[in-house]
Automatic annotation (TrEMBL):
It holds the Pfam family LMWPc. This is protein-tyrosine-phosphatase. Keywords: Hydrolase, Protein phosphatase. Belongs to the low molecular weight phosphotyrosine protein phosphatase family. Residues 8-164 form the Phosphotyrosine protein phosphatase I domain. GO terms for molecular function: protein tyrosine phosphatase activity. Transmembrane segments: none annotated. Its EC number is 3.1.3.48. InterPro entries: LMW_PTPase (IPR050438), Ptyr_pPase (IPR023485), Ptyr_pPase_sf (IPR036196), Tyr_phospatase_low_mol_wt (IPR017867). The active site is at residues 14, 20, 138. SUPFAM superfamilies: Phosphotyrosine protein phosphatases I. Coiled coil: none annotated. The lineage of its organism: Bacteria, Bacillati, Actinomycetota, Actinomycetes, Actinomycetales.
Amino acid sequence: MTEKSVKPSILVVCTGNICRSAMADVILTQRAAERGLAIEVDSAGISNEEAGNPIDDRAQRVLRDAGYEIPRHAARQVRPGELAGYDLVLAMTDRHLSALKRIAERDGVSADNVRMWREFDPELPSGTPVGTELDVPDPWYGGHQDFLDTLAVVEGSADAVLDAAIAAAKAN
């Protein structure tokens, strides 16, 4: 996607696009459908190390157990020039945020639409500074409980993210 779409659009970004961002993509897509919202959702990684791989099996399990349908997914890296085409580009960690800002600078586009996923977490105190305090936990090196914890964090912000995408699209 390189041109601005007419409906609100969200790109969620983590490292390899097989755990956190893929989970967020599934959750946002299903929540938008449940709410009757026409919102484009996609996900990507800052790395190409997992390119072509499906959602991690452990992530699929917790999503399925939570009632989500698992779509076909092929992990991919953020493409040159695509950041400007989204109303919201959401980084899962401060490191991803920095990488996305570098990508925007390289592409010569504004990074005003690049934010942290947990900026929309209603459980966090107002004014929590952008930085590692807003990182979505990485379940990759952990066990089942780590994937459940990540699922809870992602689900906790999903509705606020959808609302923010609608507001951002209206402002653009």
